[in-house]
Amino acid sequence: MKLEQLVRKNIQNLKAYSSARDEFKGEASVYLDANENPLNGPYNRYPDPLQWKLKERVSKIKNVDVHKIFFGNGSDEPIDIVYRVFCEPTVDNVVAIDPSYGMYKVCADINNVEYRQVLLNDDYTLDAGRLLQNIDSNTKLVFLCSPNNPSANILNKEEVKKVLTSFDGIVVIDEAYIDFSIADSWLPELDKYPNLVILQTFSKAWGLAAVRLGMAFAAPEIISYFNKVKYPYNINILTQNFVLEELDKQDEKEEWVKTLIGQRIWLEEKLQTVALVEKIYPSDANFILAKVTNANKVYNDLVEKGIIVRNRNTVSLCKDCLRITVGTETENKALIESLNSL
Ligand SMILES: *Cc1c(COP(=O)(O)O)cnc(C)c1O
């Protein structure tokens, strides 16, 4: 893979914005370089554009070099950035599994890039051969999501490997739910695949959806292009400092994950016994996809009872399916009681 053949010409030639904080990086006693207001500390100064402190911390936790890390305003930002770096609007295309996370297509539409959806098998497993058949010389990206949303399953490692080794473009693997799976992350294999971009997030297992911090991991050459294209100060200082503190809660996070997996197993058992539930799909995530007798009706009946699940009835391969997030013990019991009363 030649990165220069994949990156849009205008991005290769782009002279990125150089901020005051980019041009002088050391420590000084007097800062008169950024037109900041000196009278309103401590939030008057522009934050570190490349979030080095946070990267060093995440680097240790994830065992990944700092230069292979990118932070974004949620995963939404790196999802959008891969399009802006690699896909020439109206010319290039992207291949993705279907059903999957809605933001991949929204970003394709915003960037005016053709989005080719390739159906998973009926049991939501990946057929790499079928996916690869949809690739042509203008395909720049492949989007995979594992564990996949909304189907909740991890994608088979061998099939993913076929995509990684056969496709001469960028493969994005979205691992938003990887903490809830017994399967391994692709992160330790990053160096083997120069075309791999892994997405993770603080929104799920870390319980920080409101904070908006997403992570992308890739080869330093790819990360450099992301940095070139991102807004100069894309992660504000409140987020940088706050997440740095939250990272002390690693043990607590592991406990949350254990608790939620325990609750998922409980929910799976209980859902099997609910009359209107026809099928439960295996989950590697913090949610369960369940096929019910009539998803629209069950969804509305649950709303009446003040319980909101995600109706996936109109999504490919998900007719009459509800996506149910694993909640607290009390919330899960309320759900089962309500379902039994319908
Ligand atoms: C929830 C989710 C994310 C997280 O998005 P953020 O913008 O980081 O909150 C990413 N990918 C998938 C598939 C998700 O379901």
Automatic annotation (TrEMBL):
Gene3D superfamilies: Aspartate Aminotransferase, domain 1 (3.90.1150.10), Type I PLP-dependent aspartate aminotransferase-like (Major domain) (3.40.640.10). Keywords: Amino-acid biosynthesis, Aminotransferase, Histidine biosynthesis, Pyridoxal phosphate, Transferase. The keyword Amino-acid biosynthesis applies. Its EC number is 2.6.1.9. Its cofactor is pyridoxal 5'-phosphate. Residues 38-339 form the Aminotransferase class I/classII large domain. This is Histidinol-phosphate aminotransferase. The modification N6-(pyridoxal phosphate)lysine is found at residue 204. HAMAP family: HisC_aminotrans_2 (MF_01023). The keyword Flavoprotein does not apply. CDD domains: AAT_like. GO terms for molecular function: histidinol-phosphate transaminase activity; pyridoxal phosphate binding. It catalyses: L-histidinol phosphate + 2-oxoglutarate = 3-(imidazol-4-yl)-2-oxopropyl phosphate + L-glutamate. NCBIfam families: hisC (TIGR01141). Homodimer. It comes from the Bacteria. Belongs to the class-II pyridoxal-phosphate-dependent aminotransferase family. Histidinol-phosphate aminotransferase subfamily. InterPro entries: Aminotrans_II_pyridoxalP_BS (IPR001917), Aminotransferase_I/II_large (IPR004839), HisP_aminotrans (IPR005861), PyrdxlP-dep_Trfase (IPR015424), PyrdxlP-dep_Trfase_major (IPR015421), PyrdxlP-dep_Trfase_small (IPR015422). Pathway: Lipid metabolism; Amino-acid biosynthesis; L-histidine biosynthesis; L-histidine from 5-phospho-alpha-D-ribose 1-diphosphate: step 7/9. SUPFAM superfamilies: PLP-dependent transferases. One of its GO terms (biological process) is L-histidine biosynthetic process.
